[in-house]
Amino acid sequence: MLLPLAGAEPPDLARICRPRFPALELRVNGHPAAFFDGPGGTQVPDTVIAAITDYLKEKNSNTHGHFATSRATEGVIRGARQAMADFLGADPEEIAFGANMTTLNFALSRALARDLAPGDEVVVTDLDHEANISPWRALEEQGVVVRAVRVISPRCTLDMDHLASLMGPRTRVLAIGYASNAVGTINNVQEAIRLARQVGATTVVDAVHYAPHGPIDCHSLGADFLVCSAYKFFGPHVGVLYGRREAFARLKTYRVRPQSAEPPEKIETGTLNHEGLAGITAAADFIAWLGEQVAGHPLSRQPAAGEPAAARPAAGQPVSGQPASGRRRAILRAMAAIEEYEGMLARRLLEALADLPGITVYGPGAEERRTPTVSFTVAGHHPARVAAYLGSRGLFVWAGDFYATTLVERLGLHDSGGLVRVGMAPYNTPEEVERLVAALTSYLAA
Q: Looking at residue 231, what is its pLDDT?
């Protein structure tokens, strides 16, 4: 049995939001499904489903037409830009969309490469998802030198001294993850950006894993570009790119002749996923609704008027001085509550795993600030076998390297199948964590 934590409990987000997620009614072999697969994509609330359906029923059209549905579609696009600007602490003109983060990042790397010469350097990290490594490695074919920041294991933190040592006069780009999708490490991205600025390098932050779990303020963070994916925070499969106004304006993108040469459209090749954009706005509105539900809770850390940052100013999380809109304030309140609630679930799981024989956890400890993504191995058991056992009992977890291929190789786990990964979302419950621990205990005893 998991013991309750001392002190005030965070807002019971699961009680508030679970009725909004139709997928949670699923059962597997008589067991209610427990979706611990959030790091690969969350479930979506009813309003997101409705928004996508409504678009396809009543607004479906392409843009630039002189008729109602075309004008409505253009409104959907504007609304999605504003929604993601509120979510990320940016301006609508700094928000672009694409098929997914990986596609956007390849387009971004190729555009930046137009100003790179043989011998110029790009710095990546061994902690990152391949979507923020491979697009830069691809530039080696034109003579670009790619250098990688080491990871300190088993806590899986970046060697910041090594990062600083790699910054030099030929460094042109730093590509770094906000947080590790494999083990939950939150990087000191603000310090990394400061180091990159000292040598005049462009910064690209992969926030795909961090965005669902903590507040982001792009203007305070200072990155030139930041990418994330809406399907990780209750939305559809759409990639999102933030480009700092000046950096975005300088970007030499590849585009067809009729396409606008101005940001944000300059990187949006072809027709956008309009129904997905309708879902993106609904996802942002759902997060804001969640923030309204927890207003007044002592751990929601409700921001004062004009104070747009609710997160602790630690581990690279900045505090902006810019005024925030009503939706922005509600989103920040929600993200603070999500950080507290998911952190409580993760700590309970980490404390329970420490008592189970043969389990090795990788990543920061329970006492450290981290995302609620917990990865481990079970001695003598292939991760896929463990995941299949849990899956048959309605406990959905991941197994493998999760495209954090370099990290898993550095940990020496590639040949043995990688890791078992458990991720928390606001709709997960302490009871589900108890079910997971009980199932692991049974598996180990079999």
A: 98
Fold assignment, 49-284: Aspartate Aminotransferase; domain 2 (3.40.640)
- Name the CATH topology of 13-45+338-445: Aspartate Aminotransferase, domain 1 (3.90.1150)
- 408: Cα separation from own chain's centroid: 19
What pLDDT does 297 receive? 72
189-217 residue pLDDT tens: 999 999 999 999 999 999 999 999 999 99
- Phi, psi of 31, rounded to the nearest 5 degrees: -95, 135
Q: Where are the beta strands (DSSP E) in 336-382?
A: 359-362, 373-378
Q: Does the global pTM surpass 0.90?
A: yes
Q: Which long-range contacts (CB under 8 A, 24 or more apart) does 407-412 make?
A: 407/126, 407/127, 407/128, 407/151, 407/156, 407/180, 407/182, 407/183, 408/182, 410/126, 410/151, 410/153, 411/153, 411/154, 411/156, 411/362
Mean pLDDT for the chain? 93
- The domains of the chain are located at 13-45+338-445, 49-284
